[in-house]
Structure formats: C-alpha cells, structure tokens
C-alpha cells in the first residue's frame, strides 16, 4: 500500500513542475534532464533518479523517453533500490497562440511495468492529458491542464489537474508557483492537493538548473507531506 500510494503521484511531467506545458522541444533539438525526485508521507519516502530524453522529431512533435531508477524506504523499514517505470510519450501541439490565442497539446504517456515488486509500479499504465499555455508581455506565463490514468488490471485509476504561473524575474532566472490536484485512486488512497514553487536558472544556452518543492494541503499525511524535484537540463 505504501509504495503504490507514493507511485500514484510519481510523475513530474513538466520539469520542474508536476503539470506540463504544451510547448514541444524545438525541431531537431534535444532536451535531456538528469533528475532526482521524491515524496514523503507518513508511510515513508519514495522517488526516482534518472534521465529524461526529449527530441523534436518534427515541427510541433516531441518524442520522450524517461529511464528511471527507483528507491523507497517505508517508515520503520529498510531501504529499497531497483528499477523504476520506463516512460514513453509523444507531445503534439495542434493549436498555437498566434492563431488561436492559446498553445494546446495532447501528450499521451505510457508507463511500462517496473519488473519489481519492491520499487516502481509493476503494472503498465497510460496517462492521457491535455495541456494549454498563455504568454503575456512582461515575462508572465500560465500553463496547465490535466488528464486521467488507465492502469492495466484496474481500468480508470485516477485523474489529475494542475496550473502553474511563471515569471521571468531576471534574464537567466524564471520562478513559478503551482496548484495541483489528484483524485483518489483505485487502491483506496484519498484525494490530494498540493502547492509548490519552482525555478529555472540558465547557466548558458546549453546548461540549466531546475528545482521544485511542494507541500500537500489535502490529506497531506497520507499522500504528500513534502516532495522535491532537482535537475540539470542539457539543451542543444
């Protein structure tokens, strides 16, 4: 129960935030994240460390593969380390701000079984989300959306939604705040809501630092006392 409770909210889809944005990786370019994330509840702590590959395969089309290793430590128990859930995804932006007023993308994501009963989720699942974004003059942006996850053997498992507001504080520093909600899943864990803050600092055109922390505001002890995400992003 502890492991599945934590894994139900495991994905940081739009680094460093849980919510994603609809902008795909630029055509014929790469975005590669080396990351660590985790969540703490009264049941213990669990998370992942890995690499997130993104490639602009065509205009408005991004292909994604995430290769994580997973860890968890139940309260009062031992430390477990093993394979996480490999993720395969494709983001397609089909509406643009210059013609529609918003960027809108569909970003289905497949989670493969971890192959372990101790780390990750040993069932396949499919996340089906839509993401939107609006940018304004002066460095302000807002993005968010949501979707539902279908899990092999359980059917419709849970749904999630989130919204992020970001501000370009300095030429190299962007900050942001997020509100995120996930419904109760089929395992019996309660619904959860959280607030988080994040940043992105551009060292140069190739190297970038990302960080994020969040705190649960609904059923926090069971679902999200606190969580974190840290990453080095390579773009070229």
Description:
By secondary structure, the protein is mainly beta. Helix content is 6%, strand content 61%. The longest helix has 6 residues, at 2-7. Residues 1-13 have low confidence and may be disordered.
Summarize the structure.
With 236 residues, the protein is mainly beta.
Task: Walk me through the topology.
Elements: H1 2-7, E1 30-41, E2 44-58, E3 61-74, E4 80-83, E5 87-95, H2 97-100, E6 103-106, E7 109-111, E8 125-135, E9 140-151, E10 155-170, E11 173-182, E12 192-202, E13 207-218, H3 220-223, E14 226-235
Antiparallel strand pairs: 1-2, 1-14, 2-3, 3-4, 3-5, 5-6, 5-7, 6-8, 7-8, 8-9, 9-10, 10-11, 11-12, 12-13, 13-14
- Considering DSSP H and I runs of 4 or more, what fraction of the residues is helical? under 10%
Total of DSSP H or I helical runs spanning 4+ residues: 3
Measured distance between first and last alpha carbons = 41 Å
Arithmetic mean pLDDT:
92
State the major sheet. Answer: 14 strands, antiparallel
Shape: globular
Instruction: Tell me the β content.
Output: over 45%
The helix/strand class is mainly beta
Supply Rg.
Answer: 17 Å
> Secondary-structure element sequence?
HEEEEEHEEEEEEEEHE
Taking pLDDT < 50 over at least 5 consecutive residues as the criterion, the unreliable ranges are 1-13
Number of strands: 14
